[in-house]
Specification:
Residues 58-264 form the ABC transmembrane type-1 domain. The chain crosses the membrane at residues 62-84, 93-116, 144-166, 187-220, 240-264. One of its GO terms (cellular component) is plasma membrane. It is a multi-pass membrane protein. InterPro entries: MetI-like (IPR000515), MetI-like_sf (IPR035906). The chain is an all-alpha fold and 279 residues long. The protein has two domains: 1-36; 43-278, MetI-like (MetI-like fold), CATH 1.10.3720.10. 79% of the residues lie in helices and 0% in strands. It contains 14 helices and no strands. It has helices spanning 3-36, 43-50, 52-85, 88-99, 106-117, 122-130, 143-166, 171-179, 184-195, 197-212, 216-222, 229-238, 243-264, 268-278. Helix 2 packs across helix 13 (243-264), helix 3 packs parallel to helix 7 (143-166) and helix 8 (171-179) packs antiparallel against helix 9. The chain is globular, with a radius of gyration of 23 Å. The chain starts with a helix and ends with a helix.
Length: 279
C-alpha cells in the first residue's frame, strides 16, 4: 500500500466510524429488541404472521406502494420524455418547475392536498359548482388521497432519474429508425422504451423502497384510516409502547428492502444503469 493509499484510507475512517455509530449500532439494537422485548424468543415474529391487524397493515402498504409506483412511473416517464424533446430554453423552465417541490416541506404539500381534496375544498367546490357531481366526493382521508399525495411527492425524483437516462440516449439511433420508415409508435416501443429500461428500473426500485417506509404523507392524508407499516411502527413505539412488535416489524421491513435490492441487482437493466453511472 502506497503512502497515498494509506492517506486515502485514513480519510475514510471518520466516515466509517460515524456510519457505524449512527447506523449500524442502532440497527443491531433494533434487532436485539425484536428478540428480547417483552420476553426472549421469537414471539414478536410469530405475532407478525398471526396478528390480523398487522396483516391488514401489510396488505394496505403493499397495495398503496404498488399503485403509487405504477402511477408515478407512467406519469414521470411522460414528463421526462417531453423534457427531452423540448427546446433548451423551454426545458430549463420546465426543469425548474420540476425541482420546485424539492424546496417545499412535505408537511406543506400534504396539507395543501387536504385543502384541495377535502369535501369543501377547491376540487369538490369546482365539481359541485359546475354541476359535474351533486354531492362532494370523498377524495381525502382514504387510500385515494394517500396515493395522490405519495405520487405527487415521488414524481420529481422519478422525473429526474428518467430524464437523466433518456437524455443519454443517442438521437442518431432515433434518426436511423425514422430513415428506415419506422412509425413514431414503433420507434417509441422498439427504441425509446428498451433503451430507457435502466432508468425505469432505477426509478421503480427507488419508489417502491421509499413507498414501503413512507410515514408523513400517509399519516396526514390517511388520518389514521389508511394505516401503513411505517405509521403502525410509530404508533407501537410512541403510543402503545409495544417495542417488541415494532422492532420486529422494522426488522422485517429492512429485510424485505434488502431482498428487493438484491433481486433488483440481478436484473440486467438495473446492472446496466449502475455500470453506465460508473463510466
Amino acid at each position: 500500500m502506497t503512502s497515498f493509499q494509506r492517506w486515502a484510507f485514513c480519510l475514510t475512517v471518520p466516515a466509517a466510524l460515524l456510519t457505524l455509530c449512527l447506523y449500524v449500532l442502532p440497527i443491531l439494537q433494533v434487532l436485539a429488541l425484536s428478540f428480547t422485548e417483552p420476553t426472549v424468543g421469537l414471539g414478536n415474529y410469530v405475532a407478525l404472521f398471526q396478528n390480523a391487524a398487522i396483516g391488514r397493515v401489510v396488505r394496505t402498504t403493499v397495495f398503496v406502494s404498488a399503485v403509487t409506483t405504477v402511477l408515478t412511473i407512467v406519469m414521470s416517464y411522460a414528463v421526462a420524455f417531453a423534457l427531452v424533446h423540448m427546446p433548451p430554453a423551454t426545458r430549463r423552465v420546465a426543469l425548474f418547475m420540476v425541482m420546485v417541490p424539492f424546496w417545499i416541506s412535505v408537511l406543506v404539500r400534504a396539507f395543501a392536498w387536504i385543502t384541495i381534496l377535502r369535501r369543501n375544498g377547491v376540487l369538490n367546490s369546482a365539481l359541485v359548482g359546475s354541476g359535474a357531481v351533486s354531492q362532494p366526493l370523498e377524495l381525502v382521508y382514504n387510500q385515494f388521497g394517500v396515493i395522490v399525495g405519495m405520487v405527487h411527492y415521488m414524481m420529481p425524483f422519478a422525473i429526474m432519474l428518467l430524464y437523466a437516462n433518456l437524455s443519454e440516449i443517442d438521437l442518431r439511433i432515433i434518426q436511423a429508425a425514422r430513415s428506415l420508415g419506422a412509425r413514431p409508435v414503433s420507434i417509441f416501443f422498439r427504441v425509446w422504451l428498451p433503451l430507457s429500461m435502466p432508468g425505469l428500473a432505477i426509478a421503480g426500485l427507488f419508489i417502491v423502497i421509499f413507498s414501503l417506509g413512507f410515514l408523513v404523507t400517509p399519516a396526514i392524508l390517511g388520518a389514521g384510516r389508511v394505516l401503513m407499516v411505517a405509521e403502525y411502527i410509530s404508533v407501537q413505539i410512541s403510543s402503545t409502547l409495544r417495542w417488541g412488535v415494532a422492532t420486529a416489524l422494522s426488522t422485517m421491513l429492512l429485510l424485505v428492502v434488502g431482498i428487493l435490492i438484491a433481486l433488483a441487482m440481478r436484473s440486467p437493466a438495473l446492472r446496466a444503469a449502475f455500470e453506465g453511472g460508473r463510466k
